[in-house]
């Protein structure tokens, strides 16, 4: 595959239907044209970095009318990320790595296959989190065997990342114990600390009738609210969505298996069928340029093929 | 003197007992009258199984109380009719009962809110409330 730099990657993604989205933690968010892409070579400031978010890969899903390339889409995304001349500092997978199954052995096999595929990523640091498809039927047992903890924190260049589990309880809750863990962690942070929350389900009531909510998400948001600089990146809804709860921005990512309709736009939620005239439409990944000094995050939505 | 006191105490006890008995009778009658005035509850049985609710479309009348008796035919599910604040876990081998009186008309979605497997996302139904 031909090498492409980050800017070239974004341009190619743009030709393939991707869009560019800029998000500022302190100033809310707004859409930018492709022409407003930052010139990374000139604008890079010390401590700025970028990471890539991939989500809802649903490895093991089979449905030719929804995605006839179910076994190839994730691999294409891995190749696309590997083709970036400047590699991200790390990669995050925000849940539903695998498609659910009642068969415990098949679940484990899917996780193992998924790990083999993403093991091809050149970037050495990859942070995983679970989705309900990975973890709700066995309360995260197989997931933890394969990927480790369900909730954890990590720090990168003055940004504090908090991974929250709102899926291993099949009732879609974070739970009191984890909530206390979160509060204890936040106590260690300064009020103006740069905090990024990574999770699977939306923490706010996006559309509860479609299971697009976390039952005790309001308690999580309440706990985060005293912090001045918080941004949430999540998955689950298989499409972009940008929402503010007070000063906290919430950004959902596209899926790498099938897109879903806009919240409440159809009577019954179901995957959007594959359109052969625009293959991979609605699927994608994103890069997130973090500028910790300004507490600013610039999101660029990328097409899955990357050219 | 002692005999007169004893007689007075007995009269008082008799009077108090009578008053209490009469109150209890009247109160019971009140409850009975009140209960008789309430419209009868409609009982609707719902089964959750294999990622479907059966029935998945229910028509109700506004102002008429209803009881949903929900059972699972396979595994743990949830029943959530958010528009009326009605929810319950639905466990195998157990009947979950939820009571409510629709106070608005329209079409409302109910769904399984406990992740149950591959068809969980499609496990929904509709309540239609008419005048």
Q: What percent strand of chain B?
A: 35-45%
**What's the average pLDDT of chain B?**
85
CATH superfamily of chain A: Metallo-dependent phosphatases
Give the end-to-end Cα distance of chain A, rounded to a whole number of Å: 9 Å
Number of helices of chain B: 1
Question: What's the total helix number of chain A?
Answer: 8
CATH architecture of chain A: 4-Layer Sandwich
Described by strand count, sense and barrel closure, the largest sheet of chain A is: 7 strands, mixed
Low-confidence stretches of chain B: none
- Backbone structural class of chain A: alpha/beta
Topology of this protein?
The complex is a heterodimer of chains A (307) and B (131).
Chain A: H1 6-15, E1 20-24, E2 28-31, H2 40-43, E3 49-54, H3 73-82, E4 90-94, H4 104-118, E5 126-129, H5 132-135, H6 141-147, E6 152-156, E7 159-163, H7 176-187, E8 194-198, H8 217-224, E9 229-234, E10 241-245, E11 248-252, E12 284-291, E13 296-303
Parallel strand pairs in A: 3-4, 4-5, 7-8, 8-9, 9-11
Antiparallel strand pairs in A: 1-2, 1-13, 3-12, 6-7, 10-11, 12-13
Chain B: H1 2-37, E1 42-49, E2 52-54, E3 57-61, E4 66-72, E5 77-81, E6 86-90, E7 96-100, E8 106-111, E9 124-130
Parallel strand pairs in B: 1-4, 3-9
Antiparallel strand pairs in B: 1-2, 4-7, 5-6, 8-9
């Amino acid at each position: 595959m031909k090498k492409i730099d980050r800017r070239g990657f974004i341009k190619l993604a743009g030709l393939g239907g991707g869009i560019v989205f800029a998000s500022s933690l302190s100033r809310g968010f707004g859409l930018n044209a492709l022409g407003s892409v930052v010139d990374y070579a000139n604008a890079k400031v010390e401590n700025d970095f970028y990471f890539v978010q991939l989500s809802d890969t649903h490895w093991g899903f089979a449905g030719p009318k929804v995605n006839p390339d179910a076994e190839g889409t994730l691999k294409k995304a891995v190749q696309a990320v590997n083709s970036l001349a400047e590699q991200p500092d790390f990669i995050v997978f925000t849940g539903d790595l695998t498609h659910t199954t009642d068969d415990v052995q098949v679940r484990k096999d899917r996780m193992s296959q998924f790990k083999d595929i993403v093991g091809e990523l050149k970037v050495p640091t990859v942070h995983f989190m679970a989705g309900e498809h990975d973890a709700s039927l066995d309360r995260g047992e197989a997931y933890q065997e394969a990927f480790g903890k369900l909730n954890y924190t990590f720090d990168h260049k003055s940004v504090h990342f908090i991974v929250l589990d709102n899926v291993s309880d099949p009732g879609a809750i974070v739970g009191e114990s984890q909530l206390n863990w979160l509060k204890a962690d936040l106590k260690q942070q300064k009020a103006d600390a740069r905090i990024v929350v990574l999770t699977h389900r939306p923490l706010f009531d996006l559309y509860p009738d479609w299971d697009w909510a976390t039952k005790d998400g309001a308690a999580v948001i309440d706990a985060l609210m005293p912090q001045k600089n918080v941004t949430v990146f999540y998955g689950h809804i298989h499409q972009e969505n940008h929402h503010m709860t007070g000063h906290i921005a919430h950004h959902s990512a596209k899926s790498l298996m099938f897109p879903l309709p806009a919240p409440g736009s159809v009577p019954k939620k179901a995957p959007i069928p594959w359109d052969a005239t625009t293959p991979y439409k609605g699927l994608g990944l994103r890069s997130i340029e973090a500028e910790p000094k300004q507490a600013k995050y610039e999101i660029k939505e990328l097409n899955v093929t990357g050219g | 003197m002692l005999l007169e006191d004893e007689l007075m105490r007995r009269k008082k006890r008799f009077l108090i007992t009578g008053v209490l008995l009469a109150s209890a009778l009247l109160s019971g009658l009140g409850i009975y009258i009140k209960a008789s005035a309430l419209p009868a509850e409609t009982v609707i049985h719902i089964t959750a199984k294999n990622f479907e609710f059966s029935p998945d479309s229910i028509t109700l009348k506004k102002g008429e109380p209803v009881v949903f008796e929900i059972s699972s035919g396979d595994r743990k599910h949830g029943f959530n009719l958010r528009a009326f604040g009605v929810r319950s876990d639905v466990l195998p081998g157990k009947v979950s009962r939820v009571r409510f009186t629709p106070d608005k008309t329209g079409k409302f979605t109910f769904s399984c809110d406990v992740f149950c497997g591959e068809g969980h996302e499609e496990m929904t139904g509709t309540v239609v409330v008419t005048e």
